[in-house]
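Give me the fold.
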Amino acid sequence: MASERKKVVIVGGGITGLTAAFYLQKEIKQKQLPIDVSLIEAKLHLGGKIKTVSRDGFVIETGPDSFLERKKSAVQLVKDVGLGDRLVNNDVGQSFVLVRGKLNPIPKGAVMGIPTNIAPFVTSGLFTLTGKLRASFDFFLPARKVEGDQSLGGFFERRFGKEVVENLIEPLLSGIYGGDIYHLSLMSTFPQFYEIEQRHGSLILGMKKQTPKTNQKHEPKRKKGIFQTVTSGLQSVVEALEERLDLVKIKKGIKVSNIEKTGAIYQLELSDGTVETADAVVVATPHYVIPSLFPNEKESLAYFEKMPATSVATVAMAFPEEAVPLSVNGTGFVVSRNSGFTITACTWTNKKWPHTAPKGKALLRAYVGKPGDGAVVDQPDEVIVKTVLDDLNRITPIKGDPLFSVVTRLKEAMPQYIVGHKENIRNVKTIMAEKYPGIFLTGASFQGIGIPDCIDQGKEAVRDVLQFFNMERQA
C-alpha cells in the first residue's frame, strides 16, 4: 500500500458526490489510509435535487421522492447513516393514464407499458381496436439486429405501433427520464428490452416468460409497493450524510472555475479566489458544467455541449381531504402527450405515501414542463399553480383553493441520454483518462439518473480513486 499522503477533491455535493465522500471516508477510517478529502459544492446546500419541505404536518419532496427497493445501494446507504428504522414502502394502488380526457387504468401486468397479461390490455380503454390490432404485430415481427444504438420511441413503435407508444409507453418512460423517447437512447436506458427482442422476438412473450407466475386464488395480494423512502424526508438522508463527514472538509457556496494539471498535481481554482490542490479529483457535476472546468478540452468534451437537459417544475398542493374526490385505490396518473394538458403527471401523494399528510388532509403533486415546451416552468408561481388547478379541475373537480402550495423549478435537472450516449460517454472517459489520469467523471449525466444509480456511481468513484492510488479496497 502506498504510504505517501494523498489529497482527493470531490467537485459537486449532490447524492453522487456525497456518496463518494462518505464511502471514501469509511475506507480511510477502516484502513487508516493516508488520504485527505475535500468536497466543494457551488450551492449553499448539499444534496443536489434532493430537498424536503416540512410544513403543517406535511412532508413534501420537491425533487425525487423515492427509490426502487430492489436496487440495494440506496437502502444500504440509508441504513449506513442510521436511518434504517425510517424506511417505508409505498402503498399499492391503481395508476392511470389520462387519454382523451379520461383516466384509464394502466392494464394489470404491464411492465413499462409492455403487456404480460393480454386480457387487461385487450379490454383497456387506452387504445382503439386499430391500436390493439397493431400491437398484436409484436407476436409475429422478427427481431431486428441493430448495430450501435437506436431510440426508445422508434424501437417500441416498431414493435407495438404509434398508439400504444403515445398512450402508454411514452407517458410512463417520459415520467422517469423527463424527455422525448424518440430522442432517448435505448441502450443507455433499457438495453434489456433489446436483449429480450433478440432472444424471443416478441417482447410480450419474452416479458411474460421473465415474469414470475402467481396463483391468483392462493397468492396473497402484495400489500406494499416496490419503492421506498424515509418518513422524515429524503433531505434527512443528506443531512445525516453531512453530519457523518467528520474527516471531509466541506466548502459550500463556492464554485470550481478551472481545473489545471501541473505535473502529477491538479490545481483547482475556486470562485473565492483560493486554489485547492489534489492528487485525484472526482467530478460529480452536471455534464454541462464540465466543459467550463477544462476550457482547453472543448473538442474532447464536445458531446457535453450538445447533450440536452430538460427543465421541469413540480407543484405540491395541500387540501382538506374532502375537497379532492380521488379514486379510492388510486395513487396518481400520467398524461398522454396528445391530451391537450399542461401537466404531465400528478401523484396523489397522501394515497401513495400516507406519512406525507396529516389525517384528514390530501397532498397532490403535479408536474409541468415538456421537452421542447418548457416555457411554463419560467412562469410566476401563481400562474403555474393556476395552470395546474385548471388542468386538474378538467379531470376531477376540486373544491376551493389549496391550503398552501409549494412550487419548485428544477432547471436543466434531467440529463437526456440521447441516441449514442453510451458510446459517447465511453469515448469522453477514455480521452480524459489518458490526458488527466486521476480525474474521474461521474454522476447522473453518465450511467443512470435514479438515486441508487447515483449512489452506485459514487461507490465506483471510490474504487477508481483507491485503485489509482494503489490502495487496496476491501471487498
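The mean pLDDT is 92.
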